[in-house]
Amino acid sequence: MAETEAPRPRQRPIVRLGIFLISHSFSFSVVCCTAGVLALLLLPILAKNTYISENALMPGSANPMLSNQDVLEANRFVKDLIALNSKPRGSGIESQRLIAQYMKDLGAEVNYHKFHPQITQFHPLQFFSSPDSGTVERNISCSFHGVNTVGITRAPRGDGKEAIVLVTPYNSQKIKQAEALSLGTAYSVFSLLSRVTWLAKDIIWLVSDSQHGEYAAVSAWLRDYHIPMFTRLHTVNAETCPDINYLYDVRDNSVTGRKIYDGFKRAGTMAAALVIKVVDRSETFDDNLNIYAEASNGQMPNLDLINIVNYLAVHRQGFRVKVEKLWSLLDSKWLKNLGELFESVGQVVSSINPQWKFGIPAADYTEGIATLASSLYNQALGVPTGPHGAFRDYQVDAITLELSPRASVDKIIRQNDFLLRGGRLIEGVILSVNNLLEKFHQSFFLYLLTSPGKFVSVGVYMIAFALLVAPLPMVAASLYADAINLNSSQNNEKTVADEPGTALRSLKWVNAAKKVFVVHLWGSVVSLLPYFICQIPNRSPTVSFIIWFLLSVLSFFIMFLILASPFSHAKESQLHLREWAILKSVTMSATFIGLCLMSVINFSTAELGGLLLVPMCLMAQPMRRDIRVGSLSTLSRLAYNLVFCLIGFPPVTFVLLKGAFEGFNSINVGDFWCWVESLWAWSSATYLYIGMVHLPCWVLCIHILFHHC
Amino acid sequence: MELSFTQGRWNYERWGGFDPVPSNNAKPPGVELWAVFDVPHYQVDASWKNLTHALSGLFCASINFLESSTSYSAPQWGFHSASGNLRYGTLPREAVCTENLTPWLKLLPCRDKAGISALMDRPSIYKGFYHSQRLHLTGKGFDSDGVDSGIVLQQTLTVVLQPNEKRTPVTSLETKFQPSWSLTSIFGRKVSGSCVLAKSSTVYLQLDRDLVAELKNLQKHNEIAVAENVNYEGLRSGYGFQLSVEPDKVLEEVNGSHGTSPSLLYVFSVEKHSESEPFDLGLTWKIPVAWSCQQAPLHASRFLMGSGNERGAIAISFESTRLSEWLLHSDAIDSCELPVKIFQVVPWYIKVYYHTLQVYVDEQQQAISDVVDKIHVSPSEDKVSPGMMEMILKFPCRMKSAVATLEFDKGFLHIDEYPPDANQGFDIPSAVISYPDFYSSTQFGDDKSLEALPILAKFQENNSVVSYTEVLLVPLTTPDFSMPYNVITITCTIFALYFGSLLNVLRRRVGEEERFLKSKDAKKGGPISQFLSKLSAKLTGRPLETPQSPTSTSSSFISSKLILKVVLVAGIAIVWHFYLE
């Protein structure tokens, strides 16, 4: 005992700071968590105005050359397209022929691209692997193919190393007015670009056949562009499918001498891609422009691309630019109150020092939060919001521009005006990208948009996440230290010999780690199970979900029976008093590591997951202790724990979120399965996160909650 | 030696790839330079370096970048059938401009003041689709024993121009007239007489084989009644089009082997024109004709496969243009083979794995030994020499399409090896595809006229058909050059941490220090608390007192004190900020 009494040598300040934080972990974690949530809510205020960072882009520096002449031609094209609808036979093939004919008249190189949309399949090892051509299904029926039409305008004086891609998805079976308009817009730009002399990059116009989904067509074309299969059996398809034969038969009779090439045309490395869509939403005030940018796993295109579009649309063509937002958040009371609070704080601050810009109007604030939430949600989901997502897989910056005209587009003057403005916008964007000597690299890749003209960069939004996650290791360390201290003091009181005590102490830590490891192993097993469930034929989503659920529970018990036996000894030993604390600390460390890893892969998932997991982890306490004590605070803590554990269960979270946004009426048990299916179909890392981090953490928290002590 | 500056791409599909003009004059974008040296082997590289520097100064271009051994190669047989003294280098990114044209014009006897070169109006030349200036030097005493040792300089300017065209709304039913042109409408200038120093000054107008055939067909259609007159007389006067100047001579191609109509060559001599009567050739179409130029046997294109910054593949695809079927003997078409020579230089940071060569013919993979006739590879050496591949492939004549692929890894460059615009990507120079069995010679008419017309002699040379593929752009991993500040900061931090801890480890003797601390602790708190208390004593003016806080709580105690002080300092800073601004 004499040695312990002796004054300990003083530690270095950093160690002392650590000890201080650990000893005050409770207040520290409360402060940090609140600060984290507050920082997240402050993001719209901290957002900066976007600016064009690459000087070479020079958006809007040239006068648009797109004239009424082009628009008239585009109008004729639109009319011809729509007239095809009334024709009885083979509208799909006819429309592709018509488009190809028009492209050829512009002097472009045209080719058709036949594709079969890939059937989505769960490949457990394909996450994060580069998109590969995969195995082509052998038994594809003829009805299940699409034909993209590709036109390429070579830059007259360029060296053909780079290309800009325009994509217009349309349904070849039934061409709607809006789709025809989007084709018309692209046609007007394309016809202009086939004449201009300033092009430095080739222009590819991909008219993608969206009858099997917009994304599938574009991604099939990109796959063949980048990873072609040279041993594909063209001939088999051509023999069996009369439609395609027809396509190529007619080709030879065409009047303008040059034939349509039946191979695959290429044009250099892609610099950027624009997906143009027109939707008929009948806006009341203005022509609208919606920008969709999120690609798979929350990847975003370079901010400069969005900046150019935003700048040109707002300052040159007079569109109302929008980014997707969660509409339900716009009306919420508490956000308005919060916004007003921040506004008044901002006023106070600016009265102190007018140079300090803080605070924005409350309406802007709610809009910002709604946009931010949608941005976070879309990134976290990891599912691309449009065909532009396919480009991101090949490191090409792409966005979808969704134009929606003001009134109905039937009136011919309105339509001309709309085509002119849309065309000029796209022309301006292409001109800017064409100016770019290097690829997009100057501006941000990691950002969240709070409005089309405002963004939060990674340096700012990381703070919220760091604050949120920081308590986890602290509390884990303090719990561990407490448990060890308690044990050692117990040991000391009981005057047990030192040797077995330390051995058991370390053993206990290993036991807890083993348990956590087993649960994580189970999590990965659960995330692999859908692969086997998919093999079952004729299943409805509900059935699959129930099978999945039952199998997971079953596998959990099997694992428990096989692997639980070694640590049942530990339970029997005398040292189980604070066992839950050690388990909790190990759980927290594992969660912390998982969240930090996930924040590197997909920040938004980690942020949203952190919001759910961190409070749950921090508060988890054995239920029996709380009941035993029975005071108000412990009971409230118990209720809080139960609520959080209920919310934290992924299906429940999903149902709650869906209910909040779409109403609880339409909810079905199978929906969760459909959602999960879409996640792995897009090979979203969120799926892995749910399986490997979120679910095990939730199970461990439940375990701690029902721990017997 | 041959040096060419080119802007734009030669469109092999539209402008042909078989005639002497494209196969001699179509060049890859940028600068291409090759030279054969008549010096001992060990001096070749040195004289190449001299040459590049000399040319670079002469033509105001960055040809001197070809000096470094990473940018040129020494093909054995793939490029020209010359000996081992050949050096070949390209700069695909070189921008060609008037400053390169002016020195080229200076080499002409009358510059651009008189003669045909007066046509060289800079804006109209650079407005065209394609523009290539070429300088060809041949040492006469090179192979003969130097009796008349002189140097022959050939200067060629190849321009593809678009006639000014009025925009007409095109309907799908209406067919377009091909645009009519004249020298004034294209160049904006007229030729008034020849250069005084020139021996001959002639303008040629060639009608393609296909065009002639097409015109003949049309003529037959329209003039069935006067069928007897259908011969070349009709064409000589120009059926379907009208020339504004009467040609001095019309030459007709002599060829027995090709089954089509011969191409025609109209010869106009500029010499007889003068200032008062400038030469202005024009061509006006009377009927719409569509024709295509003669293609090379295969249409070669090259592209990159794969994505990402790690690896990729180069693919060269060949599409048959069906020329070979009628050019070669049609009876032996099943057994005949079409040799294709590929010469490709790849910079060292594209690490090509030559063993991954795969050849697909008609979408079937072929064994390499079946297809590759001859191959010579010199692998790249990091930062020393580029990789080079010379290969002869033998394809069956019936083949429709073929693809050859090579995989590569992308290398890393040292920070100072990146060019200024590194984020654009890195170029792989064009591959040279030649067809050894095909010769792009055109024999024109009677022999005695040939002496007077040097260009015909040029046309008659038996050169094999050559085409160049596209330049490829490979995106490599590039560091973020725009943030040197960050790099400096992080490096400094790491260095500071490293050296600090290293010094700490080296300087400190832990045992002794602990003993020292223990003895000190008995008296005072510790070095930091002592310092703090001294500081506080100085600040408050109170006499120094030794803190007697117990060590167990000292950590939290001092920290709270520290926090208090930090808050105090922050407060002072805020106040300062307020009242001094």
UniProtKB/TrEMBL annotation, chain B:
Leader sequence segment: none
This protein's UniProt keywords: Membrane, Transmembrane, Transmembrane helix
> Which processes are annotated in GO (biological process)?
attachment of GPI anchor to protein
Q: What single Pfam family name could you report for this chain, choosing any that match?
A: Gpi16
Q: Looking at the record's lineage, which domain of life comes first?
A: Eukaryota
Show the stretches that span the lipid bilayer: 485-506, 562-579
Q: Quick one: a GO cellular component term?
A: GPI-anchor transamidase complex
User: Known PANTHER family for this protein?
Assistant: GPI TRANSAMIDASE COMPONENT PIG-T (PTHR12959:SF11), GPI TRANSAMIDASE COMPONENT PIG-T-RELATED (PTHR12959)
Descriptive protein name:
GPI transamidase component PIG-T
In its UniProt entry, the species of origin is given as Morus notabilis
What phylogenetic lineage does the species belong to? Eukaryota, Viridiplantae, Streptophyta, Embryophyta, Tracheophyta
